[in-house]
Amino acid sequence: MVSKIVLAYSGGLDTSVAIKWLKEKYNADIITVTLDVGQKEDFKFIEDKAYKIGAIKHYMIDAKEEFARDYIFPAIRANAMYEDKYPVSTALSRPLIAKKLVEVAHKEGADAVAHGCTGKGNDQLRIEISVRALDPSLTVLAPTRDWGMSRDQEIEYARKHNIPISSVAKKYSVDQNLWGRSIEGGPLEDPWNAPDEDVWEWTIDPKKAPEEPTIMEIEFKNGVPIKIDGESMNPIELIDKVNRIAGLNGIGRIDHIEDRIVGIKSREVYECPAALTIIEAHKDLEKMVLNRRELTFKKIVDNEWTFLIYAGLWEDPLRYDLEAFINKTSERVEGIVKMKLYKGSAMVIGRESPYSLYDIRVATYDSSSTFDQSLSKGFVTLWGLQTVASRKFLK
Amino acid sequence: MVSKIVLAYSGGLDTSVAIKWLKEKYNADIITVTLDVGQKEDFKFIEDKAYKIGAIKHYMIDAKEEFARDYIFPAIRANAMYEDKYPVSTALSRPLIAKKLVEVAHKEGADAVAHGCTGKGNDQLRIEISVRALDPSLTVLAPTRDWGMSRDQEIEYARKHNIPISSVAKKYSVDQNLWGRSIEGGPLEDPWNAPDEDVWEWTIDPKKAPEEPTIMEIEFKNGVPIKIDGESMNPIELIDKVNRIAGLNGIGRIDHIEDRIVGIKSREVYECPAALTIIEAHKDLEKMVLNRRELTFKKIVDNEWTFLIYAGLWEDPLRYDLEAFINKTSERVEGIVKMKLYKGSAMVIGRESPYSLYDIRVATYDSSSTFDQSLSKGFVTLWGLQTVASRKFLK
Amino acid sequence: MVSKIVLAYSGGLDTSVAIKWLKEKYNADIITVTLDVGQKEDFKFIEDKAYKIGAIKHYMIDAKEEFARDYIFPAIRANAMYEDKYPVSTALSRPLIAKKLVEVAHKEGADAVAHGCTGKGNDQLRIEISVRALDPSLTVLAPTRDWGMSRDQEIEYARKHNIPISSVAKKYSVDQNLWGRSIEGGPLEDPWNAPDEDVWEWTIDPKKAPEEPTIMEIEFKNGVPIKIDGESMNPIELIDKVNRIAGLNGIGRIDHIEDRIVGIKSREVYECPAALTIIEAHKDLEKMVLNRRELTFKKIVDNEWTFLIYAGLWEDPLRYDLEAFINKTSERVEGIVKMKLYKGSAMVIGRESPYSLYDIRVATYDSSSTFDQSLSKGFVTLWGLQTVASRKFLK
Amino acid sequence: MVSKIVLAYSGGLDTSVAIKWLKEKYNADIITVTLDVGQKEDFKFIEDKAYKIGAIKHYMIDAKEEFARDYIFPAIRANAMYEDKYPVSTALSRPLIAKKLVEVAHKEGADAVAHGCTGKGNDQLRIEISVRALDPSLTVLAPTRDWGMSRDQEIEYARKHNIPISSVAKKYSVDQNLWGRSIEGGPLEDPWNAPDEDVWEWTIDPKKAPEEPTIMEIEFKNGVPIKIDGESMNPIELIDKVNRIAGLNGIGRIDHIEDRIVGIKSREVYECPAALTIIEAHKDLEKMVLNRRELTFKKIVDNEWTFLIYAGLWEDPLRYDLEAFINKTSERVEGIVKMKLYKGSAMVIGRESPYSLYDIRVATYDSSSTFDQSLSKGFVTLWGLQTVASRKFLK
Question: Measured between beta carbons, which residues in chain B are less than 8 angstroms from residue A296?
Fold first, then answer.
């Protein structure tokens, strides 16, 4: 049996009920942990609520910088887009929460950690596997998944135990952090329904966006953004700024059908202005500095990296292996990308780099080109030799 | 030596000079061939010009339907986007030109075919390899690549031989067909320069696009579009219509750094309203009907297919192998995708299919869900078993 | 509750106990099914035992031909070797067992099927997922996994219920069929221990194998073997023959560390004379008839096919998609491969094919070669162009 | 024009003729360079010959240690086997030769380097591209490819210019170094012909190999072999020793159809006792210490690394990127592999590692196993969820 439990606490109904439920079921001390990963909430209110319900101690951890530097930045280097659409924003925060839960457990001498994820999503994988990878001796509890209460039963339980609950039912289930918002549930569950405007909070309706395009220059070094329009910023400021400007231009809305690792197809809606804008720029710059073979292979590496993160395998040694590759390619990903942001679309319109492989003297179609066309005949013939030889046997 | 040459004739300077040059150099009869692949030119004018310069016979071939059905449709099934940006529009037309050149050569008893491609691009690969694959006994001539004339020398040669030339120098070099326009040269050769507005012909400046979004429903069957807004159309009409409507909403502009097969990095600008719109819809629908493993693997197949087409290997047996895979998956790619087209962006906002794997009874977060959450604990633990076991040895 | 259960019955302790246990627990009729997939057992004895323990009906199904043609032959086309070592022999038989269980269930109007797999291996995946894929309405029972009896408890249960049990404890746990034997347990569980000679039944100790090599010619058509040493044979005879001859030469022993899908690393020992010999020949022939791009891509396809089969996903649509690719390439996999079998090794020493891409006139180093070396300079330079351009920026 | 040429000199006919031919054609000083990469030749004789023909200076460079450590060892880490058969032995030595040519050119102030490769093989790619990548300003000359002499003309040229030539025509063309021998030409050009025994020099006819197996323990650290049978050795000694012992047991013979990069299919025969033995051991050990995802992905990385080396792209930045991945995985590739070498086959029969993921407490089938089988039901069901859902729509 466990006696001291560190619970990832969001302040919402599930984890609020969990404080009391875990305490009673295990007769254990409950320590709550809330991370600030840029989700912009009232952390004081959350803390008060935790204590009120029965936590013996609460940790409020500002993890924004660590999140930006050690989680979002690697995702930029990997052009992380699960199924070509989702910038794994929620997925990135989960292993950081797991890491902090383990740190607090060690500090407090706890023997268990707990989280409020359901059994239908991916977050259970992300938190549980990371916790176990970092300390297999810790027990991991998933009260929401295991107690089998319906929402109505949770509310009844809350009432009975004097757990404060919000008076209005939320239309959507939302998770957010510096890298984006995830919106689920309600009318979005019909994949034929277009999302209503009330889904969106970080992006303006493109129809109401400015009539003039915004030109933005993003400067990268070592594969990550360091300046916006020539101004150096720390990672948090930079991402915040891009979120704001891109969102103001209606950029960042995502709507697709997604494959959860447990096998469910779900309709997912995200709002990620900075992620879409920065990754579009990053991919463009990579094309200028990496050669074709590197680009082709890095796409395979990026896909694998992204899958690991989505699938809860942040702590897998393979991530470290893949990042060794990615970091090596990133050494040359340096330069400036110029983007045009306008009413919902972010388009690269210019780029430059000290490591550019684009060479106008070679590429130009005018007669000054240094490219020796007499080399092409042999190339063309040998490039196609096996195609020609094998085509005749095709049935 | 060759005595009868079939020349792919565009009506432009290079191939006009080639008629005369080939005739003189080889003392051969020249037969010219021009394909209509949707590029919208004055084919009568081209024919007259060919005869005037010295062709003994001219073929004007309307290949639009064959191009749409046998070249563009497979590209839709393969979500073909070279380096994630270029819908291989020009690349698709080249093997069809090669096929027609070989057909005419056989009909006319010619012993050679010729094309006007330079030695710096990809088109030489696409035409030469396809011609040889279809008939290795034909000699392939590439006068433009081999004669070593500069543009000024070409003009001088044209004047001397009474070859009509356009009086105005073109700012850009353009190739176009039903699937898109390619625009190169001039100020675009500086990758930091944003494309001027005069680059674009098929897309309206998003600033001048309609203030109200256009909602368009594209219906697919067997992996290809068959109806727009409920109306059945043949492939040519359908693609034309999407080009028109998407272009009117400013959709279809592409600007990126591209790797040519000969090793040159080039800055390429394309305008492909239908291609971007239809492939976005097709990818979305695939997510609804193919399972995660199929989607992941098909992406590898699609990338390989696209590379083959870009790299001039249309006739490689591997294309046929890959299409066997793609066609099998396409059997279930059926349904309707609803898109919102607005000032430069095409976004999917709804989709439905008789083969949908999305099951609201499983996916819903409300308590009616048929998903048995008690299965998840075992899944999560075993999914992460090796991650946990191997993490402890990580250095 | 279920009332009629179709049980996959091997005649061993687990499934014998299961007859009684299922009958009692569910108060259900038990129908037993035993497949002959070439494992060479006393099927009459098995049948009698089933009835004696309490089955109301027993099906003995000779599935050898179907197994060879529809399961082993596709594995040959896919060069199926899980983790480069295991010819998925046991894995191949499981979906066939599942298919027959479903067929019998439909015929008998049963509402459940049952299998004797434990929770630690891969077979539970292979049978359960295939059964559900073919008929999701059937209940699948896994008594061995779920009852929680130790081996001693099973024996006690058997004694108590008059279930006949073998008087000698087996040293190894063995599964076998036409495509190979799997041997597990006992001293093999220490991966440092070399397998004892008593592990092997189908292969002679190489030291005792004939002093003279056996030369064997295997003829393939459409990617599968059709003749041995010029003699046509049906699939069963052919595989039997190769098993016998290769085994006689000490060929077919496999020993490696394997990753089970549930996350366990296990030490696995197999004995697969025909599989190793035929696949070695098949791979060699493919190199003669497929071009380099096909070979490279088919390796990816083969790996994925093999993984699906190993991982219990025989019925996944992706297998059908992959086989469309594989079958297309197999059309040209025709010809004869000459092998030398000697004291444990099977080496290809010659091959010929009507679709051979090997052309001695091109390949020969003597001066008659038709290969035009003047083409190479251009090829070499352009092949390396980006390597040269990007190398200078390497850090 | 060039005035000082550094020539890679083997002492054979091609490069001997090249000394004189280059000298005359370019009126240039010729400096010859011969590397000792373990090929076991009379280097004094080669040096004398170079001077006699007209070299103004000769470099004899003992590169064995650098070759073993910086070229062979990375190949072991990458399990390098081109098309699953060829340990890229010759391919590995070429970029080292290129590097030394460039070093000598810089030291001597030469403006060109030259090599004796023909236009039909891969070596021209390997040397030329590596030289240009290291110094694009150097001219690269390929006299043998460009002069267009037949072998008879070469001999005539040699006679006329007093170039000593071997009196006996060689049956095969051979290249060898520490990592293996390549044998080509003559009767081997018929792929149906089994190689005669006179092809082999490093391996004994298995029929004459010892009647008793040799047990050999290879210890690895950081992904490379460091001890044989408990005895530490430097890389050269170690590889030499394994070549000797494995060769004595008839191990190392390779015969397959290979795809050259220029498009030719060739029949290639190699003799690589150490390479086959060590890589077999290395792959086995990797299975013990890397998890399934790492193994699966590393196979892709290994294939790409091997292709680069085979295809002349040693200096491509992608190799450095891939090695970052490979080196990260190699940190845990430590332990001992026990092999049985016997009459042509090398089989792993035991392995152990401090980083082993094999855990007998989990893996064992006896009742002491710590694996919780109750977790499997959920895993099996969710693992197959999409297979089951999508199977019903399969056409």
Answer: 303, 307
pLDDT attached to residue D147: 85
Tens digit of each residue's pLDDT (9 = 90 or more) over D93-150: 999 999 999 999 999 999 999 999 999 999 999 999 999 999 999 999 999 998 878 8
pLDDT, residue A98, reads: 98
Q: Which of C10, C89, C93, C123 is catalytic?
A: C123
Q: pTM, whole model, 2 decimals?
A: 0.97
Segment D45-80, tens digit of pLDDT = 999 999 999 999 999 999 999 999 999 999 999 999
Catalytic residue status for C345: no
3-state secondary structure of D350: strand
Domain with CATH 3.40.50.620 in chain C: 4-169
Domain D174-290+332-352: assigned CATH number = 3.90.1260.10
Pairing of strands B29-36, B4-8: parallel
**Which pLDDT tens digit goes with each residue over A46-100?**
999 999 999 999 999 999 999 999 999 999 999 999 999 999 999 999 999 999 9
Report CA torsion sign: D309, D312, D314, D319: negative
Residues of A in contact with B192 (CB under 8 A): 338, 350-352
Chains with 3 or more CB pairs under 8 A to chain B:
A, C, D
**Sequence-distant (≥ 6) Cβ neighbours of residue C362 within 8 angstroms:** C369, C370, C371, D264
pLDDT in tens, C89-103: 999 999 999 999 999
Q: How far is C58 from chain D (nearest CA, A)?
A: 27
Choose the CATH number for C4-169 among 3.10.180.10, 3.40.50.970, 3.40.50.620, 3.40.50.2300.
3.40.50.620
SS3 label, residue A84: coil
Identify which of A194, A253, A391 has the shortest CB distance to residue B133: A391
Whole-complex ipTM: 0.96
Reply yes or no on whether B353 is catalytic. no
C-beta atoms of B385 and C262 within 8 A: yes
D378: chain B residues, CB-CB within 8 Å: 374-379
Catalytic residue, from B173, B196, B232, B321: name it.
Answer: B173
Q: Residue written as tokens 């024919």?
A: B47
- At residue D205, the pLDDT reads 96
**Per-residue model confidence as pLDDT tens digits over A280-337:** 999 999 999 999 999 999 999 999 999 999 999 999 999 999 999 999 999 999 999 9
User: What percent of chain B has a predicted confidence (pLDDT) above 90?
Assistant: 91
Query: How far is Cα D132 from Cα D118, in angstroms, rounded to an integer?
Result: 18
Rounded Cα distance between D76 and D78, Å, is 5
Chains adjacent to C (≥3 CB pairs closer than 8 angstroms):
A, B, D
CA distance C316 to chain B (A): 9
**Cβ distance B223 to B290 under 8 Å?**
no
Option in A124, A133, A193 nearest B380 (CB)? A124
Q: Point out the residue among B259, B321, B332 whose CB comes nearest to the CB of C328.
A: B321
Select from D279, D182, D197 the least CA-distant residue to D239: D279
- The catalytic residue positions of A are 14, 94, 123, 173
Tokens encoding D212: 């008793």
Domain with CATH 3.90.1260.10 in chain C: 174-290+332-352
Average pLDDT of the residues of chain D:
96
Whether C294 sits inside 8 A of B313 (CB atoms) is no
Q: From start to end of chain C, where are the E strands?
A: 4-8, 29-36, 57-62, 112-114, 139-141, 173-177, 180-184, 214-221, 224-228, 231-232, 253-259, 265-271, 335-342, 345-352
Rg (CA), chain D: 25
DSSP for A342-380, please give it: ETTEEEEEEEE-TT----HHHH-SSTT----GGGHHHHH
